[in-house]
Amino acid sequence: MSTEVEVNPKRIPRAVAFNMLQKVAAGGAMLSPQWEPASSHGYVFEQGQDVDDVKLFERYAQILVRHDYLEQRFFDRITRCPACASQHLNLREVCPQCSSAQLSSEALLHHFRCGYVGPSHHFSGKAKDGRVCPKCAGRLENLGVDHDIPGQSLKCGPCQASFQQPPVSGICLSCGLETPSDRLVSEDIYSFCLAPLGREALRQGRLISQRKERVVEEGLPVLRSEVLQNFLFEEHKRATRYGTPFTALIFDIRYLDEAKLNLEREREIVGTLRAMLRNVDLLGRHRSGMLIASLPMTPREMANEVLQRLVAHFEQLTGVQVNAQVLLFDAQVPFEQTIQAAVLKLRSF
Amino acid sequence: MTEFAQYWFVPLNPWTWLELIHGVGLMLGSAQLYFWGLVFLPFARFHFPALLALAIRFFTPRNARSKNASTVCARMPLVSVLIAGRNERDTIHTTITSTLACGYEHLEIIVVDDCSDDDTLARARWFERTGRVRVFGSNDRNGKPSSLNIAIGMARGEYCFILDADSEVQYGAVHAMLACFDDQRVGAVTANVRVRNADNSIVTRLQELEYALNVTLARYLRSHANMLGIVAGAAGMFRTQALRDLRGFDTGLGDDTDMTIKLRKQGWGLVFSSEAVVWTNVPERWRALYRQRTRWERNMVKIRLRKHGDLLLPTRYGWTNALVALDIYVFRVALPLAYVLAFLRYFGTGAFYAPALITQTYWLAAFFLGLKLLISHEIFALPRYANFWLIPVMPMYRLSLRLVLLVAVLREGARIGLKHGYVPDKIWFQIRHW
Question: A75: domain range?
Answer without folding.
Answer: 4-82+186-205
